[in-house]
Amino acid sequence: xxxxxxxxxxxxxxxxxxxxxxxxxxxxxxxxxxxxxxxxxxxxxxxxxxxxxxxxxxxxxxxxxxxxxxxxxxxxxxxxxxxxxxxxxxxxxxxxxxxxxxxxxxxxxxxxxxxxxxxxxxxxxxxxxxxxxxxxxxxxxxxxxxxxxxxxx
Length: 153
What we know:
CATH superfamily: Winged helix-like DNA-binding domain superfamily/Winged helix DNA-binding domain
Distance between the termini: 46 Å
Shape: elongated
Number of strands: 2
Order of helices and strands: HHHHEEHH
Number of domains: 1
Structural class: mainly alpha
Number of helices: 6
CATH topology: Arc Repressor Mutant, subunit A
Strand order of the largest sheet: 1-2
Strand content: 5-15%
Helix content: 55-70%
């Protein structure tokens, strides 16, 4: 019976290194935004809504790649935090519109600066052209695998 091939070294897997960096970047950012009173998922929700203020929950769900139920829960939390308003659709029916309150409109740019700083903290080891190449490669993988959900955890 032939000898079994030994398993590849853990450090030989690209996924290992990607996960290591991703976890560090994500955990650092989560701690940073939580100090501002929001979660990463709430930040993504607010950032998407910032560009399309006055959106239906279904449109927000589609843009974030989340279910309507998940969007509803996030909206509930952000309404409770006095950052988002939920109003009935003026055209009638059961539709609703989600919009940022002034406090959230002021918060989003501050959080964006924190996101930029978090990226700089981790990716300043790469030259600008290397950062662009990494972005291109990650986008290629995401596109090939049909990955569309906004990373929120």
